[in-house]
Write a structure and sequence with these properties.
The complex is a heterodimer of chains A (about 260) and B (about 350).
Chain A (H helix, E strand, L loop, with lengths): L7 H53 L1 H14 L10 H6 L1 H23 L2 E3 H12 L8 H11 L6 E6 L2 E6 L6 H10 L4 E2 L1 H8 L3 H13 L4 E3 L7 E3 L1 H8 L5 H7 L2
Chain B lengths: L4 E4 L3 E5 L3 E6 L6 E5 L3 E7 L7 E7 L18 E6 L4 H14 L18 H55 L5 H10 L15 H20 L3 E3 H12 L6 H8 L9 E5 L5 E5 L4 H15 L2 E2 H8 L3 H13 L3 E6 L2 E6 L3
Antiparallel strand pairs in B: 1-2, 2-3, 3-4, 5-6, 6-7, 8-10, 9-10, 11-13, 12-13
Helix pairs in contact in B: 4-6, 7-9, 8-9
The chains are: A mainly alpha (about 260), B alpha+beta (about 350).
Chain lengths: ~260, ~350
């Protein structure tokens, strides 16, 4: 009696079927790759056409950039992933943001000795604009934030901490947990904070408050004014530079002098 | 009179100053009516609808006795409506709100009132000068608007096509487990994240191999100058400043550096515990660095990261990493106080 399904013949047949299946799988993939290449060429020419008409818009118009970025995100594309990407090469989006990244790094590095590696987004914005000069393209805070997001991948500790309606930009790998962040947010209004204020507002024990403040001191993010009237004040140079060295217009100056 | 803001209605222009709301016929500029802002009781927006344009409805207070003659003797209505046929309602509303809040007419006296309905010489001259400016502004605005809206339209169309590409490539990338060069480059060009590794595919493309070799050439001298090690952010700035155009993205740099080892180049990408990433000359071995750190610290008795940085001409960031590394290996120990972090030779 013949027994089907078992024996050398059946096994060979099975192997053959598997091999055929794999082969077909490869062929399928090959077909698709060919199709993809064709589509890619078409897309490239579409992109070229778009670039020839609107490349300026990307550079000049920050609203347009926002729109562009959001649309890319929606379809699952990161136009800033690589300088070699189509978007970078043809629209020049890449160069815009990568150069901004360089400027951000340089500003943060220059001020690190003073603020410990923490700076408000506003101050960063002002200084970057200054550094770019009068004739350079304008950059918005949205542009800065996108550039900073990209810098994170280089492990230098870049991050953004939400504070008082805007952000603090961190540029050193100091460990800042929720407790530190909350104290920074508390200090935002006046540029400094005291142990009592922390205890009152956040309902913490003195030890917890001191622990957080010590860490900020150690990291160079806070300076101690032990000669303040009632109680030691912990000042954050990242914050007080805005309060005490803001540019004043001539009218404001007139109003200030008695 | 400070001409603050202007918009075109379909037969007239509404102007807002710090003191008045003015309407002027677009064809006959001598036909002009004005109303002091102080007459406004309250105002509200009416959004545009199908077949309806956006409007602002302005409710007025009772007529004062000294009111100048206007287009109508009487009206049963106590409000007027500004109908914005083209656009401008939002901005006008915003500015009106601002002026009504600030009430600047209470502080500064109004300048000479504009001539109303008279054919006086002075009035005509003034109107002509302003007409020229207004027209220029309007033309510019229309052109800019046209450019922008065309740009947005084209962008939307482009994105639709891009979306098709993304979906196709995702379905392929999912099927092919072993990604060939071609597919990886394609994903990279489009900026699409590899659905399997979730990286916008970096390592392993021809581009990154080339980059890695370029970096090797470029970084030898700077690295030697800096004690054999540079933070990746420093490399990023150095390389991109030198290139000037066609800059590298941060990801490009990281992915190129990851290839140093497999390409047998004498550089290495190294990640410290803190997350800090550096490029380091392979010749500068770990043991050497630790030994040198220990020597320096022993020599001075103790060192902070800042002092060590000054000594070696390194950045504070990197000198700190070296000290931490030596500590990790058991050669140094720390004294952590509010004064700072100081390292001592480990005598335990």
């Amino acid at each position: 009696m013949h027994r089907r399904g078992v024996g050398a013949g059946a096994i060979a047949k099975k192997k053959l079927a598997e091999a055929r299946y794999k082969e077909r799988g490869n062929v399928l993939a090959e077909d698709q790759i060919v199709q993809m290449s064709k589509q890619l060429e078409t897309f490239k020419s579409n992109l070229e056409e778009f670039a020839s008409k609107h490349k300026q818009e990307i550079r000049k118009n920050s609203q347009f950039r926002v729109q562009f970025q959001e649309m890319c995100a929606t379809i699952g594309v990161d136009p800033l992933a690589s300088g070699k990407g189509f978007w970078s090469e043809m629209l020049g989006v890449g160069d815009f943001y990568y150069e901004l990244g360089v400027q951000i790094i340089e500003v943060c590095l220059a001020l690190k000795h003073r603020n410990g590696g923490l700076i408000t987004l506003d101050e960063l914005h002002q200084r970057v604009l200054k550094g770019r000069g009068k004739y350079a393209q304008d950059v918005s805070q949205d542009d800065l934030m996108r550039a900073i997001k990209k810098l994170k991948v280089m492990g230098s500790g870049f991050g953004m901490i939400p504070v008082g309606g805007s952000y603090l930009v961190q540029s050193v790998p100091a460990e800042l947990n929720m407790d530190h962040t909350v104290v920074l947010q508390l200090a935002e209004k006046k540029g400094f904070v005291t142990v009592s204020e922390i205890k009152d507002s956040l309902k913490w024990e003195k030890e917890r408050a001191c622990h957080v403040l010590d860490h900020l001191l150690k990291e160079g993010l806070a300076w101690l004014d032990s000669q303040a009237a009632e109680e030691a004040q912990y000042w954050l140079p990242a914050l007080f530079s805005e309060l005490t060295s803001r540019d004043v217009t001539p009218e404001e100056a007139n109003q200030m002098t008695p | 009179m400070i001409y603050y803001f202007m918009f075109y209605l379909d037969v007239g222009v509404a102007l807002l100053s710090t003191h008045r709301l003015i309407w002027r016929d677009v064809k006959n500029h001598e036909c002009c009516i004005a109303m002091p802002l102080s007459q406004i009781l309250l105002f509200e927006e009416q959004a545009a609808g199908i077949g309806k344009s956006a409007k602002i409805v302005i409710h007025l207070q009772a007529t004062p006795a000294n009111k100048e003659p206007g287009p109508y003797q009487h009206s049963k209505y106590s409000f007027i409506k500004l109908s914005f046929k083209e656009h401008g309602q939002i901005e006008f509303y915003r500015r009106l709100t601002e002026e009504m809040t600030r009430k600047r007419w209470e502080n500064t006296p109004a300048s000479q009132p504009i001539p109303i309905g008279t054919g006086s010489q002075a009035g005509r001259t003034r109107a002509v000068g302003i007409v020229g400016i207004e027209r220029k502004i309007e033309e510019k605005r229309k052109e800019t608007d046209k450019n922008i809206s065309e740009a947005f339209e084209d962008l939307s169309k482009l994105m639709v096509k891009a979306k098709e590409m993304v979906e196709l490539s995702r379905s392929i990338a999912n099927k092919i487990k072993d990604k060939q060069f071609g597919l990886r480059s394609y994903l990279l060009s489009m900026g699409i994240a590899d659905p399997v590794t979730r990286e916008t595919h970096g390592s392993g493309t021809h581009y990154h191999m080339q980059l890695a070799k370029q970096l090797d050439d470029m970084l030898q001298a700077p690295l030697e100058e800096r004690g054999g090690m540079m933070a990746l952010t420093e490399v990023y700035c150095l390389v991109n400043r030198a290139r000037g155009m066609e800059l590298l993205s941060p990801e490009d740099l990281v992915n190129a550096c990851k290839m140093f080892e497999s390409l047998k180049l004498p550089l290495r990408l190294r990640v410290f515990d803190s997350g800090v990433m550096v490029v380091q000359l392979q010749s500068h071995s770990e043991e050497e660095m630790i030994a040198s750190a220990l020597d320096n610290v022993s020599d001075k008795g103790s060192l902070t990261a800042e002092e060590f940085a000054k000594l070696l001409g390194l950045s504070v960031l990197l000198s700190k990493e070296r000290l931490l590394l030596a500590e990790k290996m058991g050669h140094l120990c720390r004294d952590d106080s509010v004064e700072g972090l100081r390292f001592y030779p480990n005598l335990f």
